[in-house]
């Protein structure tokens, strides 16, 4: 047992020795890397100072460019200002000459009040003539439209819908006549709808009757005996005739 423990301890010591060698190798590598980067680390403040100086130099260069641009703009602005000032002086001189010329010409003009009154009279007379011509055109246009409308109404009153309308009736009477016919047709449609409901009910009753068998209860009365089965054979034809009549009435409306 002691020999076994000694062997285990020796194996552990050997393992720890190998591990120690690895750690020492890593420490040596780290120390080597540290020795390589230590000079650069010690110079970091110097590099930082150089970077700050370069940033300031860049800012100074940008400011110099901006100052040069502003000076160029200022130079151009002064040139434009001088040119504008010269043009303004010329315009003032021209204005003075024109005012002098206008004063001399106004002295030789006739009375402007009389001329203005005569001008306004001619303008008003022209406007009135134009308005009168437009009014005549409008009157003729409305007269032609009225004649065309009356002719159209007369043509419409010749339709077969107005056979029962008295001959001396005007368009208002014709409209009233048509409204009465429409109301009559609508009442006929309501009556047809009621009749169609009755025919549909008969068809439904026949559908119930066709499915009845002795011994099965009737869905309507509950009886299990069916001596006489309801039949509505003619309801289909009546429904078709009623549908045609409805379509004809709707067409007339």
Specify the helix fraction band. Answer: over 70%
Please state the average pLDDT score.
Answer: 83
User: How many individual β-strands?
Assistant: 0
Largest sheet: none
Oligomer: single chain
CA gyration radius, whole angstroms: 58 Å
Stretches where pLDDT falls below 50 for ≥5 residues? none
| Distinct helical segment count | 5
The amount of beta strand, in percent, is under 5%
Derived from helix and strand composition plus strand pairing, the structural class reads mainly alpha
Terminus-to-terminus distance: 124 Å
H/E element sequence: HHHHH
The best one-word shape is: flat
What's the layout of helices and strands?
Elements: H1 2-42, H2 44-107, H3 112-157, H4 171-210, H5 235-252
Helix pairs in contact: 4-5
Descriptive account of the structure:
- The protein has 253 residues and is mainly alpha-helical.
- The chain is built from 5 helices and no strands.
- The protein has helices at residues 2-42, 44-107, 112-157, 171-210, 235-252.
- The longest helix has 64 residues, at 44-107.
- The protein starts with a helix and ends with a helix.
- The mean pLDDT is 83.
Which labels suit this protein?
253 residues; mainly alpha; 5 helices
Summarize the entry for a quick read.
The chain is mainly alpha-helical and 253 residues long. It is built from five helices and no strands.
């Amino acid at each position: 047992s002691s020999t076994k423990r000694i062997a285990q301890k020796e194996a552990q010591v050997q393992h720890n020795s190998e591990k120690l060698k690895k750690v020492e190798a890593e420490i040596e590598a780290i120390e080597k890397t540290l020795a390589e980067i230590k000079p650069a680390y010690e110079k970091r403040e110097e590099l930082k100072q150089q970077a700050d100086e370069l940033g300031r130099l860049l800012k100074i260069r940008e400011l110099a460019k901006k100052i040069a641009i502003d000076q160029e703009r200022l130079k151009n602005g002064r040139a434009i200002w001088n040119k504008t000032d010269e043009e303004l002086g010329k315009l003032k001189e021209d204005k003075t000459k024109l005012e002098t010329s206008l004063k001399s010409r106004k002295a030789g003009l006739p009375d402007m009040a009389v001329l203005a009154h005569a001008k306004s009279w001619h303008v008003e007379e022209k406007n009135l003539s134009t308005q009168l011509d437009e009014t005549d055109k409008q009157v003729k246009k409305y007269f032609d439209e009225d004649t065309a409308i009356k002719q159209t109404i007369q043509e419409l009153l010749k339709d077969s819908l107005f056979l029962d309308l008295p001959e001396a009736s005007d368009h208002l009477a014709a409209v009233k006549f048509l409204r009465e016919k429409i109301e009559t047709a609508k009442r006929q449609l309501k009556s047809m709808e009621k009749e169609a409901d009755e025919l549909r009910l008969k068809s439904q009753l026949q559908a119930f009757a066709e499915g009845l068998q002795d011994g099965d209860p009737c869905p309507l009365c509950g009886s299990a005996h069916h001596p006489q089965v309801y039949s509505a054979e003619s309801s289909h034809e009546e429904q078709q005739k009623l549908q045609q009549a409805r379509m004809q009435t709707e067409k007339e409306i």
